[in-house]
Write a structure and sequence with these properties.
single chain, 199 residues, alpha/beta, Nucleotidyltransferase, domain 5, five-stranded mixed beta sheet, 8 helices, 5 strands
Length: 199
Amino acid sequence: MKGLDTGVAGLCGVDEVGRGCLAGDVLAAAVILDPHRPVVGLADSKCLSAARRERLYQAITGRAAAWAVGRASVAEIDRLNILQASLLAMHRAVAALKPQPDFVVVDGNRLPDWAYTARAVIGGDALVPCISAAAIVAKVTRDWEMQELDASFPGYGLARHKGYGTVEHRAALARLGPCALHRAGFAPVRQARAKASLR
């Protein structure tokens, strides 16, 4: 990418997943790739099949110089708002890295309030390999978690839609009302809670 040496050691990529969901934590991953152990096939996670993402997840976590996942809980999302919670998850992911990075690149147009030397890159998940890697790790981790949570919160279809506001999910919200995983500040959840209280 112009103006950025994406092959430098100590370069950390960061991306989040779950920002637009109605349920579940927002997760972020931070990845420092090892230039001596390249991961072939990195791309925008949204353009990859679930099976391909999972194979790349195994390669990334097995070959990266460092990687970590951070999160902000549903309670923190409701208290802070989803943007600030997403930035908090990013901060936690980078803070958990060992070793710490020399430079951080973040997907999007906003940076957390932190002391790291960093740059925001719009569309970075398709442009910068370490951001692509972070997006894949975050996406696969969150998808697996939502699949597990489906057993504890049956009826909503979490294993299929991963908490996003699909037609199936909104119908389940209307039928069952919100559960502990739902983000109270999001309009469809507020509306479902209000209807449930009238029953």
